[in-house]
Structure formats: C-alpha cells, structure tokens
C-alpha cells in the first residue's frame, strides 16, 4: 500500500523522454488543469478586448447551429412522427446532444489542429515548455464564440422539456444532468483520441470531424431512422449512443431498438470514464511515438 501511494508517474512524456517530468498522479492532474485554465484565461481576455467582435461571432455561431433545428422543424411540417418520435421528443434529443457536444467543442475543439502542428513542427515548441502538452493543445486559441452553440442547444432543450410528455420521476430528473455531463465527457474523449490519431496520420483531422461533428448530427435524430448495424456501431464500437440515445430512451419511455437490458441506460458515466481512460492512453502512446520534423 505504501509503495502504491508513493508511486511516481510520468505525465505527458514526450518522445525519448523529452518533456518527461516525474510527479505524483494527483499533482500531474492538478498541474494540467491549472495550466489549461491559465491558457484559457489568456485567450478569453484577448477575446473580450474586442467585445463587439465576440458578440457578432457568437451570434453567428448561434445562428449557424440553429439551422440544424430549423431543418428538423421543416421535416415535421410534412410528417407527424419521425422514427416513432414526435417533434418535442426529437427536440429533446437535439437539445441534449447539442449541449453536450457544445461543451466538449468549447473545451477540446482545438484538438483537430494538432495534425497541422505535427506537420509544420510547431509541436516541438510545446514539448519544450514545462506544461503538459495536452493542456496546451486543448486550450490553444480557445474560442469563446462556441458558447453560441451551447446556448442554442440549451434553448431547444428547455423548449422540449416544456412540451415533451414525460412522467417525471426522481430517477429521470437525476438522469438528465448526468446524461449531459457524461455526454460532454464522451465527446471530449473522442476529441482527444482523434487528436492522438493525428500523431500517426497528420492529415486525419477530417476523420476526427466525421466522428465528432458527424456523431453530433446523427444523435439529433431518433435511432429508429438509422440501420440497425449503424446503431450497434455507435453503441459497442464508438459508444456515442451513451451520449443521449440510451438515457433519453429511458426518460422518454421509448423502446430500445437493440433490445438491450434496462440497466444499460444508466451506464453513461461508466462509459464516459472508460472513454476518457482510453483516450488518455491513446494520447500518451501518440506523444511517445512523435518524431520531430526537424524544421
């Protein structure tokens, strides 16, 4: 027990030991979080120096993302149900995934630029700083305008909660915020894993976007409108179904198209933890494999 408590680990170990700092796991996490907040604070201050520009870009982000929901509303101008879901129920799906994804995009959306740093060699600069590389990459060019997406998702979710026909119980009330937090964590893990993949395939940012942005778009619609094989894939391979599909089915009282046991609907926090652990392992493996371009 004493040896376990005193064990030291390397955090964000760079290639061939570059940037390797021996520290306790708790201290490493605290340092990474603190560094992330400091960098974010710098970018926020820079953004707020031009308040009108921030307001305009945030409104533009709000309007651009709102078009997705406008498309859904136009669909329901011609049909009463979509995949067995009414408009308020689809709005519930839309609001939950848009909010969760918006938070993840705000916190980790800069990960898709890692491939560019790998190609042009600017990642070397981050490796030489006494700050965890993941914190630097994630907080780089922190885009406060992405609050527009979160605001729009919350507004749709609020409207859905007022219109949806749900028999609320204490379990369902607790499940809603747990779903949002877990969903954001799952999307954050996907962003980190996608960034790690760019260590080996530096031109793969669009592959990452197809899973993150594409996954968010898919989760805005009922699972019943997709092929069963695709639903299985986003449940057991890339577990995006735990962002909102499975817990939302429990809240809305809708049947599970895969016929999974009822307790699976409550596994979002467990899946989020596992996804974050796997993403962290992938990140460390990618960082260890990195070789400088020499430029």
From TrEMBL:
Transmembrane region(s)? 26-44, 56-79, 91-109, 174-200, 230-246, 266-287
Q: Which UniProt keywords apply?
A: Membrane, Transmembrane, Transmembrane helix
Recorded hits in InterPro entries, A to Z, give:
ABC-2_transporter-like
What this protein is called in its record is: ABC-2 type transport system permease protein
User: Which first-to-last residue range defines the signal peptide?
Assistant: none
What the entry lists under Pfam families is as follows: ABC2_membrane_6 (PF06182)
């Amino acid at each position: 027990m004493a040896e376990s408590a005193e064990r030291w680990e390397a955090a964000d170990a760079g290639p061939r030991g570059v940037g390797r700092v021996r520290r306790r796991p708790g201290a490493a996490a605290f340092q990474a979080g603190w560094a992330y907040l400091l960098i974010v604070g710098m970018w926020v201050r820079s953004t707020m120096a031009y308040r009108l520009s921030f307001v305009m870009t945030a409104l533009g982000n709000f309007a651009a993302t709102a078009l997705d929901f406008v498309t859904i509303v136009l669909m329901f101008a011609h049909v009463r149900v979509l995949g067995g879901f009414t408009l308020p129920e689809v709005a519930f799906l839309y609001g939950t995934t848009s909010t969760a994804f918006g938070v993840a995009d705000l916190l980790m959306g800069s990960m898709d630029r890692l491939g560019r740093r790998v190609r042009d060699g600017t990642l070397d600069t981050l490796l030489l700083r006494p700050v965890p590389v993941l914190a630097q990459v994630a907080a780089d060019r922190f885009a406060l305008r992405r609050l527009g997406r979160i605001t729009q998702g919350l507004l749709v979710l609020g409207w859905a909660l007022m219109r949806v026909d749900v028999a609320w119980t204490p379990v369902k009330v607790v499940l809603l915020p747990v779903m949002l937090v877990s969903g954001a964590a799952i999307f954050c893990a996907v962003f980190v894993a996608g960034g790690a993949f760019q260590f080996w395939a530096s031109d793969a940012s669009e592959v990452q976007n197809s899973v993150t942005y594409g996954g968010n778009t898919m989760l805005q619609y009922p699972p019943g409108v997709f092929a069963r094989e695709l639903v299985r894939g986003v449940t057991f391979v890339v577990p995006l179904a735990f962002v909102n599909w499975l817990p939302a089915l429990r809240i809305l009282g809708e049947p599970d198209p895969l016929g999974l046991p009822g307790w699976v609907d409550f596994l979002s926090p467990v899946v989020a933890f596992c996804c974050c652990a796997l993403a962290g392992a992938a990140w460390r493996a990618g960082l260890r494999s990195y070789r400088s371009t020499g430029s």
